[in-house]
């Protein structure tokens, strides 16, 4: 009987550099959504695949590397459509690359469903894994670096001058970078689709919340009190 795991590994090794090349050809100048981000998303997804042998690894691989083919800024009026546009472009690029046609629909769905702003529910285990893997990269130390990088590109302030933790105001992550932790990132663990994703998200959010407290103490000049 053929070794299905070995066959899957061979497909992964065959397609990973080709998919990375497709992604690199469409890459913009956003360092928070660069090829390194795609490598990290695939690394997280590959770890989750061990707990889900029923998932198709090649579908997950393709969606991980092509999910940001269309990457619109967070303040772009069509931001909510970015993942759908990325799925359409991915289908075109995969067809041209002779990617297995039977997997195109599942890859496209995983790409569409990865986006937080699109609000598309993942219907397959592959889509759930890709969504979790992408959201994990928004948490923890790397997520924090990406947060401030993106805020800088958008022209946001680091934090509110007098109320960095939004105790007496409505959080506004378009105006203040630190607010993004509570506006969006704190909601991610509850949205995780896999047990491994939820566990890692909880750990990384705890790290972010600790940073947030330390940041606010320094910001308000009370770190040594």
Automatic annotation (TrEMBL):
Name of the molecule in the record: HD domain-containing protein
Gene3D superfamilies: 1.10.3210.50
Source taxon at top rank: Bacteria
InterPro entries: HD/PDEase_dom, HD_domain
UniProt source species: Noviherbaspirillum humi
Source lineage: Bacteria, Pseudomonadati, Pseudomonadota, Betaproteobacteria, Burkholderiales
Domain HD: 34-139
